[in-house]
Design brief:
Layout: E1 3-8, E2 16-21, H1 25-32, H2 35-43
Antiparallel strand pairs: 1-2
Length: 66
Amino acid sequence: MPDIDLCVSATSPSRFVIIEKWESPEAQRAHFDSPEMVEMAKACEGLLVQPPQIDLLEGISAHDLA
């Protein structure tokens, strides 16, 4: 089960960011390939100014920067 945060930009109030944290790359891939995600993407057609930007990020700790 993912940890999900919905954020809105403080400088661009019409920009939203969804952050999903997954237990493994396999769990994330299964989510993106799921029928629910395909259905959600199709439901957004015509509603968005542009296609969503999807980026896969690696979490780092401030301790890693020392």
